[in-house]
Amino acid sequence: MTLDTLAFAGGFKEPVFEAQAAFRTLMDCMARPGTIGRIDATVVPPAPLNATAGAIALTLCDHDTAVWLTPTLSRSALPGWLAFNAGAPVTEERQNARFAFVEKDAMLPNPSLFAQGTQEYPDRSTTLVVEIASFEGGRPLVLKGPGIRTEMEIAPVGLPDMFPHFWSENRQNFPRGVDLILVAGGELLCLPRTTALGVKEA
Amino acid sequence: MSTADLATYNFAYLDEQTKRMIRRAILKAIAIPGYQVPFASREMPMPYGWGTGGVQVTAAILGPKDVLKVIDQGADDTTNAVSIRAFFQKVANVAVTTKTREATIIQTRHRIPEERLTAGQTLVYQVPIPEPLRFLEPRETETRKMHALEEYGLMHVKLYEDIARNGHIATTYAYPVKVEGRYVMDPSPTPKFDNPKMHMSEALQLFGAGREKRIYAVPPHTEVVSLDFEDHPFEIQTFDKPCALCGAENVYLDEVVLDDRGGRMFVCSDTDHCEERCSAGHRGHLAYDKEAAE
Questions:
Q1: d(CA A146, nearest CA chain B) in Å
Q2: Which residue range forms the structural domain that includes residue A185?
Q3: Is the ipTM of this complex over 0.85?
C-alpha cells in the first residue's frame, strides 16, 4: 500500500462497540492508576504508531480535539489517517493540543510544555499518549493517590530517567497538569495528574 | 451484536461524537476528583430534572455486556427509575436488574444502595445543581474563582449559621463534601446518611448534571470528607425504629403515611435491600400485613 492510501484503511471495524470497549478500559484504568488494561481492537494505524495508541486516538479524538504529534509521526501517514478516520486536526503548538502522541523510542518532551489547563478550568489540558517498550522489567516505581487503595508498583521500560522528576513537577501545579496514558503492545496504563510517583529504594 | 441490529438509532441513543465528548469529560473528571468539567449537554427525550445528565453519562459508558440498575430515591419501581430503565432497554438492548450485586452500572437519583458496592461497579448520579456554592454565590464566574483559589470560607459560614440558628448543622441532604483535600463537591441531593459511603468506595462514582452541563467524578479509594467543625462533628441521620417490613437497622428509612388518622410506617428506602432481607426471612412488625395484602 502506498503512503496515500494508508490513510484510508485501518479504522475500527465496529466503530460503536470497539470505541465503547476501548473507552471502558481507559475509564477503568484512569480510575485505578497503575492497573494494566488491554484493548483488543482491530485498528491498524500507519507505522510507527502502535495499534493500541491508534485505538485510543479513534476513541477520543475528533474535530474538536487538536492533536500534537512527534516529528516522526508528523512525517508518517498518521496526520492523514487521523484526518480521515477521526476528523482530528494536527497542531504544532503543544499548548493547543488536547491530545499528544509519542511513539516508542521517541524522546518524551517535558510534560510542562503542553497545555496545563487554567486554575479555573484545569480540564483544558493535554492528555499524553506515550508508547513505551514494556510495563515490566524497568526501575520499580511506587504509585499512590486517588484510585489506589494503598500503593501500586509499576516497572516501565522506556521512560526517560528524568520521568519521576517531570511527574513530580506536574503534580505540584495541581489542579493544573497533564494526564498520561502509557501504552506497551496491546496493554495500557494510566497516570492521572493526581498520582504520586516514588522511586522504590532497593 | 452488530451495529446493523439497531438500525433506527445509534446504540445507547447518543451519536458517536457526543459520546466521545462526554467520554473525554469523564476522563478529565476522574483525573481531577471533585472538579466540575463543563460538557456540551444534549437535549434528551425527557425533560430536564428527570436525570438527563445521568442518562447521558450512562449512555456514554454503557456497552452490550453491561447490566444496568436504575434507582430513584432507592427504589427500583418508581416512575423515574422505570422509565430510564425502559429507555436503555429500548435504545441499547441492555440487560437490566434490580439486584445491586448483579449490576455493573447503577444509575441513581438521590441514594446510594445500602449494599456495599464492589470494584467492578460504576455508580452514576443524576445531579440537579452540581455547584455546592450556587445558593451562596449565584455568579458562575465567582464560584469558578472560588474553586480555583480553594476559597471555601463561605461554605463554612453557611454551616456555622446553621448552628447559630438551630444549634446543630441543619443541612440533611446535598451535604457538602471535600474530595481528596481539594475540591468542595455537592454529592447531589443524597441524604447525608449516604455521605460516608462515598469515602474510599470500591466503585467509581460519576456525576452528571444535564441542565447545568457539568460532569464530575470520584475515583475509587478516594477521600471524601463531609465538612464540619471540631465541636460540631458531622453526624448521619439515625432512626429510632427498624424498617417496618424487613426489620433492618442502620439503613435509611422512608416515611409512608398509611391512613388519614396519623397512621404511618417507616420502611427501607432501598427496595432491593428490603426485598432481599424479606426473602431471607427477616420480618419487621408490619411484615405480616404486607403478605396478607398480597
A1: 5
A2: 3-194
A3: yes
